[in-house]
Design a protein that fits this description.
Length: about 725
Amino acid sequence: MSETERHLAAVARELNVSVVQVRATAELLDEGATVPFIARYRKEATGSLDEVAITSVRDRLAQLAAVDDRRAAIVASLEERQLLTEDLHHKLNAAETLATLEDVYQPFRPKRRTRASVARERGLEPLAEVLLRQDPRIDPIVEGARFLGPEVPDAEAALQGARDIIAERASDDADMRSRMRRLFWQRGMLRSSVRSGRETTGARFRDYFDWSEPISSAPSHRVLAVFRGESEEALSVSIQPPEGDALAIVERAYVRGTSRSSEQVRLAVRDGYKRLLSRAMETETHAEAKRRADAAAIGVFAQNLRQLLLAPPLGQKRVLAIDPGVRTGCKTVVLDAQGQLLFDTVIYPDQRRRDATDIVLDLIRRYEPEAIAVGNGTGGRETEAFIRSLQVDIPVISVNESGASVYSASEVARAEFPDRDITVRGAVSIGRRLMDPLAELVKIDPKSIGVGQHQHDVDQDDLRKSLDDVVTSCVNAVGVEVNTASKQLLAYVSGLSSSVADNIVRYRSEHGPFRNRQDLIRVPRLGAKAFEQSAGFLRIHGAANPLDASAVHPESYSIVDRMAADLSLSVRDLVQNASLQARINPERYVTSTIGLPTLNDILAELARPGRDPRASIEVIQFREGIHKLEDLEPGMLLPGVVTNVTAFGAFVDVGVHQDGLVHISQLADRFVRDPNEVVRVQQPVQVRVLEVDLNRRRIALSMRRNVGAGAPQ
């Protein structure tokens, strides 16, 4: 079996799918197909694998390729040093993971000068071999005396050198390292303590000043918090299993009997564990714990980001948006239904309430906004209360403004509004975020959006890759109107690069709106492959062919034409008539390349062409009179909105500029293993206040119905 076939089989086993599905997915990826394109338009080839499975195939094959690259480097090194034997080559080829590969290579790895290498230079390796035989007839002292020399003054020095060689051999033993690796994970304890003199400067880590728990069950957020304390030199951290268990493993592997030679071996392997193997395994376990914690934290971040990006949009409606400010006033803008800035000004509801009232009422009269967006930052609740006091019959909606300031100071915002200051840009971003969260948030680095968990502690390359995957998935799931989308949004469309997205925007600026999907071919650098990958995700509303506004791919238009012709209809008539669509038998249109999965997708799209998969927006109104932390009291029942979901619970905005925490134990009356089982980002919820800590600015909340019965409302 070739290396490629081995990889395909391994991935198929791990994902519990067929090798045929994995091979087809790998081939499509190699041809340049994107994950969204494969998931949506190549179901027949992959057996309808979804985006999660396709991404797993992609990432796992990349990991196996990395193992191959490392294997090739090791083989080259061994060949160069003339150390590669047939048996060693076989063991290297049999290694399926990087850890196993490195274990096999460990004894042959070029090392700095060690105690064992010094002993070998002094000719003591034969003595080590004698001791390892553990012959009860051998007297180690007598044997050691045979190896005296200028640098080996006595038998004890000879025995010490021999023990150093045995210690290193035990530490380098691949099987021993594998056993010890399991022990560290199964029985290892993560311990942390405060470093001397860091009690004050490291106070934010005080929960971990004297902490221990099994590394196997330590949740990711605690692992990352402890490691952050270690990196900031506030905590001393160790990961060790019970020493007796570890020593028992090495002694069982190497010590036979109770002879004097056996005792020398015992001393050697115990020293090898304490001095070499233990440290190596602790370093490796620390790195693996960090990797696993990173993966868990990145998974939480990715899930939260997906929920935020797919938050319900207001849609193309006129909006009056306000970025609250206390001292500098409230930046107020009016946007048309396409999000274009029509007017901007500043109002001062606190200092000049009458003027502010006149300005807002005049803007409402002149521009007739269909919604009013108020940022949820400092002064947000007060500004919201002011707008509501005007008693206008327009929805007033609080908008999470995390990241708006990042956008307002960005190159993107400066290019969009070169003659406006950052305060106006921030208000525009708040209004647009209400209209279409996805279209606006793609302009901001996902790490700045504020739905992460220990995002600065995790591997930044892995984080960026995961978040890019999420944004790409969300953008393509919703689809993009090519005639209005920003180049930042277009750049996330399947098959389009930033430069091609820029060319699309430039082309429509110079030639007017795209009339149909085929016009896209005229865009510079948008070739046949890019068209294939992107066309199904780009929408052109108002096109002559209604399919151009749908998720039906142009390669399938001929099938819809046949369906319509068989019913003696035009395609437009077919799209608009659900009863006629019900008469279509998809099995009649199956071909060698188009099967029922794609045909069923086409019929679903004909029923609701170009439908936005996101839910309808729900207006949340915080409780009146609750504006700051000091207004809260235990027992209060409050409306709120989930702002962040973590492994240990969910944070909820109740309108006091400080999110409260619903601990995982307070999310429901039943046991909850994963908070995402119960809540999602942007979800409206009802919470009860359990505790308010004014000193630490913390709020404890509950969503359990049986908590605090009879408490004041």
